[in-house]
């Protein structure tokens, strides 16, 4: 296989698991991460692990993928890697933003809101624009992003992230509507509560969330990053060409159960 995928937020969590699964599927992996210290070293080790899986077809860049300057600098490099051929997938898996209530003793600031909405939401739009302008998205390409149940239920400390993810869902619907005529699809994947590094940043009650989810979820367990990676893999198949402008639930039915946060 000569196709490539681009993963924004590729080193851990859903993005990392998806990178590994798609490398196993034979795709070349182009990934952005923004890590320091031990996490950066782990990311480099993970890159080498992927290279062993797919014969070295891996490019990792440790820089802020949400910055417009990064997009302008690296889109030409991506074109060189793919030899000008369209990517099979653009996946948004960046989990970085402000987690706090909108109101309270200390209000969320405009700077915090703007940063969170851009990094976790609108940055996907600008990546799509720049890749499409360079013909790096074409027939059969997929654009995807990860969302969560916190987008339609109120949750402690989740306000800014919720706004960002709702924006991303709207962007994905519109991308799919506007680019569908070119054979490009766009969908959101909603995972259930998943024990990842990102979850620990949302609430200091995350361990309680995990235990409660095991009882709430019809399948009596939490979602795993591998579950989500498997869903992405399925959606890259030709049989999924007509799935567009949708939210795909990968949570064992969790979103149909009563909320217990």
Quick overview of this protein structure:
By secondary structure, this protein is of the alpha/beta class. It has 8 helices and 7 strands, in the order βαβαβαβαβαβαααβ.
Salient structural properties:
globular; alpha/beta; single chain; Rossmann fold; 261 residues; 7-stranded parallel sheet
Structural description of this entry:
The chain has a single domain (4-251), classed as Rossmann fold (3-Layer(aba) Sandwich), CATH 3.40.50. Helices cover 45% and strands 15% of the residues. It has 8 helices and 7 strands. Helix 2 (37-53) links the parallel strand 2 (28-33) and strand 3 (58-62).
Question: How are the elements arranged and paired?
Answer:
Layout: E1 4-8, H1 13-24, E2 28-33, H2 37-53, E3 58-62, H3 68-82, E4 89-92, H4 110-133, E5 142-147, H5 159-179, E6 185-191, H6 197-202, H7 206-216, H8 225-235, E7 246-250
Parallel strand pairs: 1-2, 1-4, 2-3, 4-5, 5-6, 6-7
Helix pairs in contact: 1-2, 1-8, 3-4, 4-5
Structural class: alpha/beta
Radius of gyration: 18 Å
Number of strands: 7
Low-confidence stretches: none
Portion of residues in beta strands equals: 5-15%
User: Helical stretch count?
Assistant: 8
Sheet of most strands: 7 strands, parallel
- Going across the major beta sheet, what is the strand order? 3-2-1-4-5-6-7
Give me the strand/helix succession.
EHEHEHEHEHEHHHE
- Into which percent range does the helicity of residues fall? 40-55%
Q: What is the averaged pLDDT score?
A: 91
